[in-house]
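Q: Hi! First time asking for a complex rather than a single chain. Here are the components, and I think there are three in total. Is that enough to go on?
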Amino acid sequence: MSALVEINDIWIEGRADETWMPIINGASMSLNKGEVLGLIGESGAGKSTLGLAAMGFARDGVRISKGSVTFDGIDLINASAAVKRDLLGKRIAYVAQSAAASFNPSHRLIDQHVEGPVQHGVSTRVESVNDGIELYRRLRLPDPDNIGFRYPHQVSGGQLQRAMTAMAMSCRPDLIIFDEPTTALDVTTQIEVLASIRDIVEQFDTAAIYITHDLAVVAQMADKIKVLLKGDEVEEADTRTMLSDPKEDYTKSLWAVRSFKRPGKAAVPEDATPVISVRNVTAAYGKAVVLHDVSFDIHAGRTVAVVGESGSGKSTAARCITGLLPPLEGHVEFDGEALPLDYRKRNKMQLRQAQMIYQMADTALNPRKSIGEIIGRPVEFYMDLKGAKKRERVRALLDEIEMEPDLFIDRLPSELSGGQKQRIGIARALAAEPKFIICDEVTSALDQLVAEGILKLLARLQDTLGLSYMFITHDLATVKSIADEVVVMKDGRVVEQGPKDEMFTPPHHSYTDLLLSSVPEMDPDWLTNLLAERGVDNLGDAAADRM
Amino acid sequence: MTPFDNSIGDLLVFFGKTGNVLLVLGIITFGGFLFRSIGQLFDNRGETFVEMPLFIASLLAILLLAVVSLIWSAFFGGRAGLRTLILFVAAIVFGAWAFRYAGQLLTDNAPLFRDMPFGVAFGYVFGALALIGGIWFFLQPVELDGAPRASVIFFRWAVKGFIGFAIAAFLFRLAGRYLGTNGTRKLFRQMPMTAAFGILVILIYTIVSVFAGVIAPFGQEEVLANSNIVPGGDPAVGGDPDYPLGTDQIGRDILSRLIYGAQNTVGIAFATTLLAFFIGGSLGFLAATLGGWLDQVLSRLVDVLMAIPALIFALLLMTIATAWAPKLGIPLTFFMVVIIAVIDSTRVFRLARAVAMNIVVMDYIEAAKLRGEGLAYLVFREILPNATAPLLAEFGLRFCFVFLTIASLSFLGVGIQPPLADWGTMVKDLAQFINFAAFAPQVATAPLLAAGAIALLTVAVNFVVDWMLHKSSGLKE
Amino acid sequence: MGSVLGIIVQRLALGLLTLLVVSIVIFIAVNALPGDFAQAVLGQGATPEAIKSIREGLGLDQHFLLRYFTWLAGMVQGDLGTSFAQLNFASNMGGTQLKTVAEQIAPRFQNTMFLAGLTAAIAVPVSVALGIMAALYRNSVFDRTINIATLSSISSPEFFLAYILILFLAVLNPVLPSLSNIYEGMELSDRLVRTVLPALTLTLVVTAHMMRMTRAAIINLLASPYIEMARLKGVSPMRVIVVHALPNALAPIINVIALNLAYLVTGVVVVEVVFVYPGIGQLFVDSVKNRDIPVVQACCLIFAAAYILLNLAADVMSILSNPRLRHPK
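A: Yes, that's all I need. Here is the structure of the assembled complex.
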């Protein structure tokens, strides 16, 4: 039996500054009918480009320079535009990363749904409207009879992603490319979408290429997995083989990230004064109250992870601590003394003691200043060091974050990688010699291997310098690896808090339980087991809303 | 006989009567409905016509009717000009089709021709025809039966000027690629021709305006013996080699006045733009950084000032200035600089504030604020270095705007005042010579040169700004 | 729909308020003139009696605020005052019939509207079509040629474009008249012919702006994920533009059109002077030169009102074409 899609030694280039840079260097793959291939790799590995190439499509500024793509016997590289257009949407469909951006805001969902079948002459408008409603029902969208007649902005992100899967299914294609369909979603929403996608692909025996950077997700979805690194193929194998017995070093290191875990610490003495103590804080943006009576403590030398989904108030809590958003009620204590609510009223000493590391290292470093200036400024500002002494201190700090001073001190941020920029952010915080650092989603924009490096660095600094961290994150895997204590937030309230080990062993608060169980695990049977345990109607948002 | 048919006028008059409007609307709506219904009969996919709003159907119906009636009147109404036009378009349409078909046959269906949209083929054929037509016209004799053919002469001048500038820009870019520092060489390598042309022109203008006193053969106010000498320096037609561009009505050398015009017009515009940037930029940064009531007050004030069109406001204020100037003994030109700078600073304020706003929300500004940095450090060390690129581009645009405003004011007679030579005034004074173009092409060049000098500089600055914006926007397509 | 209506009413009120503030600004500016209106009217050699009579006639002996409100009330009722030139004429020649500013402006206002309307009728369809085509075939020879041509036309002063057109279409090839002497009771076709050159000049400037902005708006849209999605659904290129890009481009395009019509307001001044077109712009420039304050004031207010109105229209239209506002959650 010949394969449905056959990619043979394909080379793809992208245009950058008047020259063509390689994106994919000679990848090959083949996919049979009904098979699901997981394509994983870090950002910049060329996953999406390869996925689109399987459709015979290259984005603007990208070209396929060599190789062949054959779909069901049709040579997609040399096919005319008309032939390709006839295949796209009808026999090969695409599900994009952000459904919110990929649905046209000016048309109702159902109108966009029926466009494919009607334009390709597969079915009439009336038929495909009815079919769309049926697909919405199968994908377990709420109110399937009417949801299609809404505009995209009237529907939530997870529902849009399922509507987009329905749209891809509208012509019953032979192949669907899923391009990171759940990356932009919260964990509880993600699980519903994953379950729906897997079901529908099985029901219609559709072949799929599932692109993601999340190993645990791909383990649930794919029959076989292919690993990419910077445009090169690393290895490809059956899912279970790949998980249990990876061959290449790179794959092994990817797998190993998941196992990083720091040892637990001794319990905090009862009478210890916390470094930071948040006391009954209520805060609002204008009239919208976003924090309700939030209290938690952070002790010396410990990491408190604040977790919750987007909009839960995690970052607002941090803004209250730093004084950027003075709380309406309550206050924040540092070493037992109340801090002024507004940062403008705090003195240099108080400002110095609490530092911050940001999520997006790109916007956290002034692009016009060299690394030496960025780290040197707090040294000069707080420690009053100038000239050679200042430079000496900056070099020591660069050593501390494991970056070669001679190499980096005169560079600009734009000349660094994402992980290096994040390290500079850490060095800038350290330069103030603080007791307490707020880490706001510091690893969520980074690839897993790089993120692991940052986490290890933070752990080592904590051990040597006795720092306290407030670690804001939505990623529970990170929490598991570095937190001492956990604060779970939802809708601006603390729903549960306590030492990590207690939090991660049942019985939990029901919301924490939902959060924890929704985090995909590397076990390929995890999703199946979870569905069996909870039932399809008791997943994610539906369950969360009932709480 | 006019190119317009009186029947169109009659039709408009008919439309104009209110009683007929309803009738006409009714007919149009019905026509649209009919059009859509017929469409639906043939639209087997049930997509295009089913969902078509009635007003779009009506518009399409009107369009269809207009095209049909135009073709009808061209072939059966004896409109020869229109007929030629339609035949010409039809010929290109056919030519495009033939071109693409021939291309497909000759290249064995290469993707270039196979996937070529019809519009592109049409464009190629049209472009080729235009090029051939242009060359043919260029090669026409300049004289016919002893009389000069002014059209050909002007066309030749335009083509020669264009090619000359293109070659100069090319050589300039080539020189830039091999001379200078590494940085400038890299810059020149990525530069499009238009930007190279722009930089070259700006350089020339700068040199001319700085050294006007050295370059110009005569003074700007110097009244010479002969007036109305024809440009071109050819004694046979009333020229004089001493005055290559001739003299004006009261006998001032036009070349010298053009050169001094560079100094006056460009210099004053530059100073005005600087002033506008100083006012608008500093207030804009302050508003963005401090926010609060200061931002509110300044922004509302700017909103109000911007609600009056710039040129109109400038004219209004100039009216008042013309009354004050003699009283206070301050030259009117000084008033003009201040007035235009203030009006223009509102635009600068908007941009500076927007740019600074985008920077202020960055995390590194938050980090600096939380460190306890003062206002001066924030503005000068953190914000300003990141705002230079957009502000520089805006400076170019604002300069063009100010320059054109000053030229327009001068052209209207209320701008830069005599005895200072300036291009806007020169155009106004020399404008009537354009009417001699048909039989004495040289005579008409003087006003066009002054107007062209203005256009050339603004075009040049715009080319450079366009390139800078394109570069900084990072569009890689 | 309630929220949309609310927003529109709010914008309208804001526009009205702006106009009011603008009227104050204009009034203050004019009152900053040195000396006295009466002196300005009559010049240096005026007799004290004449000055006194005019002062009383104009109500100059009253308080500043009272004068403002009298003036504003007059404006609202369409009474724009009497031109100084007319007053001067009257005081020298005796009490002949005075022509009010409103009577002076009315026919010229019509002429200007006619010119602006004709320009818009040519420019809007041409520039939108060209803009869409340039966006579709971006970076092609066509796009680059159009880019250079429009940039040049934007950069050139209006009078340069006007004289170039005169040179080619009136002097070298006499197909159109270079002077636009228009009078009342003229045949519409004659009137059209005489308005074509100024309209073409304005069209060149406005089309260039509109076309570039349309192109930018469409290119912006073409980069959005939903356009890529439409392509990946195998939709034809024409349909991608018409069904997927245009409905979303409507707001920016309408905005562009309204903004450029507002720009026309300024553009007419210079063009009317070049072609001696008897519009409000030419009257304005003449009055500025003669320091005929009532006319300057009135013209200024009319220009500002048109400008504010068009900007307001742009605002309202883009609110209306936003699906998020039309279909609230």
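A: The first helix of chain C runs from residue 2 to 31. Let me know if you'd like any chain examined more closely.
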